[in-house]
Amino acid sequence: MDAHGLLLELEEELDLLCGADFTHCGIGFAFDKHQVKVVEFLTTKTVMVNQLNQSEDGGVEIRGVVLNKKVGLYAARIASLAKLDKKEQYKAGPQNIQFNKSTGNFILTFPGPINDGFYFYEDLRVLQLYIREAQIDKIQYGVVDDRIVFSHLKLALTLPMEFIPDPRIVQEDAHDMEREAKDRELRLKRQQEEALIKQAERLARQAERDKQKNNLGEKEGESEEDSGSGSKAGSRAKSGSQRDSKDQSGEEEEEKSESEEEDEESDDSEGLEDLPTQNQMKKDLIQAIEEELREADSLRKENEEL
């Protein structure tokens, strides 16, 4: 169930979430056979943690942002949740903080090795970040300060010592990204196949039209030849014996012309014979489509196996 989505449908809640007054939100919900209860709480924090991981030396590395420029991050500690009022187990001060004043980004490290920091369920550990609200410009990051007194600082954030982001979520996100990439590739392949099919259909229709035009041109040429030979025969009958030599010359020219026309028609027919027939084009198109569908089905099965 998308609990957050339910709350986003309420205009009042949406205005609060989009406003600048709150920096963090939490969602809780419970359900039974009859109803679902959803609770959302909004808070304002001065510090935000983006990453909480183990460092190369076996210590702890925290990356985050100071959201309020009127405060300065000064110290941190890892302590037992059941003994927060006791002495801290691990602590870090300005010497362990790298801070970018222009962006507010910081990197805070606890030197290692720390063997009981993460997922120590018998005695849950928590991370606490402390800030200073006065004379923040005088905080000397990278300089050792052994006089850290947590009671003189303000607690800004408390988090359980669990990895941020959760490695399981990272793996799920990577798997989702891989699946989405394969889906995009498959959709693109389908679009290309559809474009090829449409192009093949256009070419087939164009070839059919060209064939019909050529057939029509041949019929018109045969009709003109028949009418032309009839008029020439009538003219020879009326001319008489006085024009026998001229008629003979005309017949030779006519035979020559007819021979040239036959040669041209033969060349045209040879060009048409080079073109594939309509049935052959349909057969080739169907075969290409079947091959593309088999390949798409194979990719889909590989995607499902992953």
Q: What does this protein look like?
A:
- The chain has 306 residues and is an alpha+beta fold.
- It folds into three domains: 3-43, no CATH class; 47-164, Immunoglobulin-like (Sandwich); 167-226 and 269-306, no CATH class.
- The chain has helices spanning 3-8, 11-18, 167-239, 244-274, 278-305, and strands at residues 24-31, 36-43, 47-54, 60-66, 72-80, 90-92, 97-99, 105-110, 125-132, 154-160.
- 10% of the residues are buried.
- It starts with a helix and ends with a helix.
In short:
It is built from 5 helices and 10 strands, in the order H-H-E-E-E-E-E-E-E-E-E-E-H-H-H. It is α+β, with helices and mostly antiparallel strands and 306 residues long. The strands form 3 sheets. A 4-stranded antiparallel sheet has the order 3-4-8-7, with no helix packed on it. The chain has a 4-stranded antiparallel sheet with strand order 6-5-9-10, with no helix packed on it.
Keywords:
306 residues; alpha+beta; Immunoglobulin-like; four-stranded antiparallel β-sheet; 48% helix; 22% strand
